[in-house]
Amino acid sequence: MPDYSCIKLSNKDDVAVVQLVDDKVMDAERIAVLGEELMTLANRDDGKRMLINMDNVRFLSSSAINKLIVLERRLADAGGDLKLSNLSPEVEEVFNITQLHSVFDIRDDEADALSAFKD
Amino acid sequence: MLMNHDATWTYDAYIASDSKIANQTVLMIIENMQRIGWGEGELFGVHMALEEAIVNAIKHGNQEDPEKKVHVVVNSTLQEFYLKVTDEGDGFDPDAVPDPTLDENLELGSGRGLMLMRHYMDHVVYNDRGNSLEVTKHRTES
């Protein structure tokens, strides 16, 4: 299993559950690494069903959001599925402002998201 | 927490086109805004404006050229946040930025920062050349 520096990975119900290490996702170099690590995971057989639990994320920049958009697109193209959960109200508002709530499947919490993978 | 309504904090510096220095600068400005009494709720939008303005100046304006600087000016009171960010690039036309909400532009990675700044700030104005941005936000939290 590769070493990751920007994500923490676990597997629940055959879903790759990702938590972001940084609470403020704003450093350009870290965001580049984050994007690479997410794509590495997405290219694995056990990374096609992915949940990003954003519980500890207090801030994320538009560059970070762009990495998530690219990830969502690549997973969709590969027949995978990406869901997001546990967004703080401030972070969720960022998705609403940028009209990305319709691009991403955003769930209230991890249990809700995991159960939605079974639908 | 200092809640002096006359509290003012100013900052005026030329920073290198370096993402680490940009991050440190953004966090330092946020800390000082907190110090003069701004609350977390409104600082999220201020943080977003600082981040997007300075990162855009480094990345798109100065093309990450280490020889070029970004001029950052902040003048903040408890009532108002003012930010001016100027880069050494050729400038751009903010009205020509692709609409980031259109499906074909989703992955482009441009326009979304400007959209967020316009949402969180009361005024967002570029100079004619398009290499200098001024934003202001009036504090609404009591």
Write the element-wise H/E pattern of chain A from the N-terminal end onward: EEEHEEHEHEH
Instruction: Provide the CATH architecture of chain B.
Output: 2-Layer Sandwich
Structural class of chain B: alpha+beta
CATH topology of chain A: Transcription Regulator spoIIAA
Major interchain interface with per-chain residue totals? A-B, 20 and 24 residues
Which class do the helix and strand fractions of chain A yield? alpha/beta
By CATH reckoning, the class of chain B would read Alpha Beta
- With strands numbered from the N-terminus, the spatial order across the biggest sheet of chain B is 1-2-3-5-4
In CATH, the architecture of chain A is 2-Layer Sandwich
- Low-confidence runs of chain B: none
Let me know the CATH homologous superfamily of chain A: STAS domain
Main sheet of chain A?
5 strands, mixed
**What general outline of chain B do the C-alpha atoms trace?**
globular
The quaternary state of the protein chains shown equals heterodimer
Quick description:
The complex is a heterodimer of chains A (119) and B (142). Chain A is an alpha/beta fold. Helix content of chain A is 40%, strand content 24%.
List keywords for this structure.
heterodimer, A: 119 residues, alpha/beta, Transcription Regulator spoIIAA, five-stranded mixed beta sheet, two-stranded parallel sheet, 4 helices, globular, B: 142 residues, alpha+beta, Heat Shock Protein 90, five-stranded antiparallel beta sheet, 3 helices, 34% helix, 25% strand
